[in-house]
Design goal:
Layout lengths: L1 E14 L8 E3 L1 E5 L2 E2 L5 E5 L21 E4 L10 E4 L5 E3 L3 H11 L3 E5 L10 E5 H11 L12 E5 L14 E4 L7 E9 L16 H10 L2 E10 L1 E4 L3 E7 L1
Length: about 250
């Protein structure tokens, strides 16, 4: 038997059309088996890298976060072409050779674009964090931090207001919306953080003390990974329920 505890509301939704490029804020997103529709379905690949992690990310090229991808048809991210605004304001098709060459030149080695139907994820397909946790980390490092720095998909405003409360939800399930039959996400494990969190999502400037603080104060963990258990639409303002066994 299960009980449902109301733990908060959805405060923000984010998807990343191209891995490590600028994220976009959404009012609504469709949760599918492979994450949010349109999230990380494209990535630039290091053409000469034969390792198990060939993606070109802001770890190798921080300036990637200054490229702004946009779906031409935002309501149809599965099929829509993508246009990218470059740091100097030009708008180029994602699949253009001009953009590929610009990224390759900045990186200093050949790259190519890849489309991945299941997404180019480092680990699992959905990530979330609470606003209270962001506020606490902001206090820890002494500068304002947003969900976009941590590349999260779902930002939750918890009713408790306690930082890191989401860690207590591990192994539980979250249901979104007014109905118990809404989209559902199982929470699997904490997110191990890397140097990506040091990169400012607007300027690409690095601030090493952010990862250092998370490593020292939180054992290098911040936010949670989840896997979809039931697809459906999630909207900003949706009620969030935690399903627990009783």
């Amino acid at each position: 038997m299960r009980d449902f505890l109301e733990v908060g509301v959805v405060k923000g939704l984010f998807r990343h059309p191209v891995k490590s490029m600028r994220s976009e804020s959404l009012a609504e997103a469709h949760l599918y088996w492979h994450g949010l529709d349109g999230d990380r379905r494209y990535a630039f690949v290091q053409s000469e890298n034969r390792s198990g992690f060939p993606w070109l990310t802001a770890r190798e090229l921080p300036q990637l976060v200054r490229y702004i991808p946009r779906f031409e048809r935002p309501s149809d991210p599965v099929h829509s072409p993508i246009q990218v605004t470059t740091p100097d304001g030009r708008v180029l098709p994602l699949a253009s050779d001009e953009l590929r060459q610009e990224v390759a030149t900045a990186f200093g080695r050949p790259v190519h674009l890849m489309k991945l139907g299941r997404g180019a994820y480092d680990s699992q397909v959905v990530s979330l964090i609470s606003q209270a946790t962001l506020d606490q980390v902001t206090e820890m490092v002494g500068r304002s931090l947003t969900a976009t720095r941590f590349r999260q998909n779902i930002l939750i405003e918890t009713y408790s207001g306690y930082p890191f409360a989401e860690e207590e939800w591990l192994d539980g399930m979250l249901t979104f919306g007014d109905s118990h039959s809404g989209p559902r996400l199982r929470l699997n494990r904490p997110i191990q953080r890397c140097v990506m969190v040091n990169v400012d999502p607007e300027t690409a400037e690095k601030e090493p003390r952010i990862l250092r603080a998370i490593a020292l104060e939180r054992d290098n963990r911040l936010g949670l990974y989840g896997s979809p258990e039931r697809p459906g639409p999630i909207r900003v303002g949706d009620l969030v329920r935690l399903s627990v066994k009783v």
